[in-house]
Design a protein that fits this description.
single chain; 400 residues; alpha/beta; FAD/NAD(P)-binding domain; Glutaredoxin; 3 domains; 5-stranded parallel sheet; 23 strands; 30% strand; elongated; binds flavin-adenine dinucleotide
Length: 400
């Protein structure tokens, strides 16, 4: 079974950016991708909100991202990830092409929009049918559009679209919105919005581009045609996480998105998530790329800490470890004094920034800083609060 340093699931903007940052930090990087590297943007005609590119085709930007990542030499593997497991610190990724063991893992497998399922939806995707108002709203300036859905996203995006569109119809199959009342009230007060309740879109039709929709009122049974140039479908989206089971222990939001902190760390040590797959406010190329960069640097830090932990803390017969906080000037001053004492007395003391190394703090049960620990091959022998050089000296007297 191959063992890798950093494995990335997904080669969309998040995964490719993580690969660039990971390789530039000197890591051995393996990228697992089941489709075309570049990700979801490969399926969009044009992108005009990614900084540095006033206008680019989706396939074009996908290729630029791929080429850029390839320049730094990560290994790409064409495969579909089927399952992952995290046990006792081991991270195993099972693909249809074999199994990979990895020290750190970044999940960047993106998300999928749920389709409304009406006739013409697939045919006109990219030719008037869209799943993203921020991405495509500006292409419908002064044109009438329809929004399908009744949740928060649908109603908020309909409101957003009114700054471009001449009129926005919200088509919802129920007679009441599922969205929050404040969101609905704001949308209903907007003169450009017309709601079409208890109705479903039967068909999206046109020549080359969308020209109209056929809508069935499920109470009256009557069908009407509405002329529109765009149809925005907001009936939901879901993370691409078919390979993740409950047993993985990875914390997820109610709707399935992976929960991370600002360093893209998940609830499992050494497992990170980046891009559309995680719980976040805005799902776009620029935010996915930012997440990828952060995740790779956090993975680098994790791997460095693990290495340090392994060599300095876990493999030493006896070690005195001083845990302090690098953002507290008093701790920094004390660290200088303790280091000077260590140098003059020949004692070996390892300093750990407990502020930056939450995981190390948790691992050794350090609840308050500054503190000193005696470790034997990674096992805590004893610990004490250390607020002065005198405290440190007293602690070190008993160091065996
Ligand atoms: C039609 C459309 C238009 C858009 N327009 C814009 C726009 O104008 N501007 C903008 O900023 N954003 C736009 N977006 C959104 C943008 O594409 C996404 O926010 C971005 O691609 C997210 O990047 P990601 O890397 O997180 O995920 P993705 O791009 O979705 O990449 C995830 C990758 O993971 C792979 N993967 C998934 N599961 C597995 C598995 N089990 N094994 C192996 N590989 C797997 C997928 O094949 C995919 O390549 C648009 C999206 C769509 C669909």
């Amino acid at each position: 079974m191959a063992k890798r340093q950093l494995t990335i699931i997904g080669a969309g903007p998040a995964g490719l950016t993580a690969a660039i940052f990971g390789r530039r930090a000197g890591l051995d990087v393996l990228v697992l991708e089941k489709g075309l590297a570049g990700g979801q943007i490969n399926s969009t005609a044009e992108i005009e909100n990614y900084p540095g590119f006033k206008h680019a085709g989706g396939m074009e930007l996908g290729k630029i991202l791929r080429d850029h990542a390839e320049k730094f030499g990560p290994e790409f593997m064409d495969c579909s990830v089927e399952s992952v497991s995290f046990r006792d610190g081991d991270k195993t990724v099972v693909t249809n092409e074999g199994t990979v063991q990895t020290d750190a893992l970044i999940i960047a497998s993106g998300s999928s929009f749920i389709k409304s399922g009406c006739k013409g939806e697939t045919e006109f995707t990219g030719r008037g049918v869209s799943y993203c108002a921020v991405c495509d709203g500006a292409f419908f300036t002064d044109a009438p559009v329809a929004v399908i859905g009744g949740g928060n996203s649908a109603v908020e995006e309909a409101d957003y679209l009114t700054q471009f569109a001449s009129k926005v119809y919200i088509i919802h199959r129920r007679d009441e919105f599922r969205a929050q009342k404040s969101v609905v009230d704001r949308a209903l007060a907007n003169p450009k919005i017309e709601t079409v309740m208890s109705s479903v879109v039967l068909e999206i039709a046109g020549q080359d581009m969308v020209e109209r929709i056929a809508v069935l009122n499920n109470k009256s049974g009557k069908t009407r045609e509405i002329p529109v140039e765009g149809v925005f479908v907001f009936v939901g989206a879901a993370p691409n996480l078919e390979f993740l089971t409950e047993e993985s222990g990875l914390k997820r939001a109610r709707s399935g998105w992976i929960i991370t902190d600002e360093k893209m760390e998940t609830s499992v040590d050494g497992v990170f998530a980046a891009g559309d797959v995680r719980e976040k406010y805005l799902r776009q190329v620029v935010t996915a790329a930012g997440d990828g960069a952060t995740a790779a640097m956090a993975a680098y830090e994790y791997l460095s800490n693990e290495h340090y932990l392994q060599t300095a803390l876990l493999e030493t017969e006896r070690a005195a470890v001083f845990f302090m906080s690098s953002i507290d000037p008093a701790h920094l001053a004390l660290d200088r004094e303790i280091s000077a004492f260590a140098a003059s007395s020949g004692k070996k003391i390892i300093t750990v920034d407990g502020h930056a190394n939450r995981r190390l703090r948790e691992k050794f049960g350090v609840t308050s800083l500054p503190a000193m620990l005696e470790l034997s091959r990674g096992k805590k022998i004893r610990a004490a609060a250390v607020n002065s050089v005198h405290d440190a000296k007293t602690f070190l007297v008993e160091l065996r």
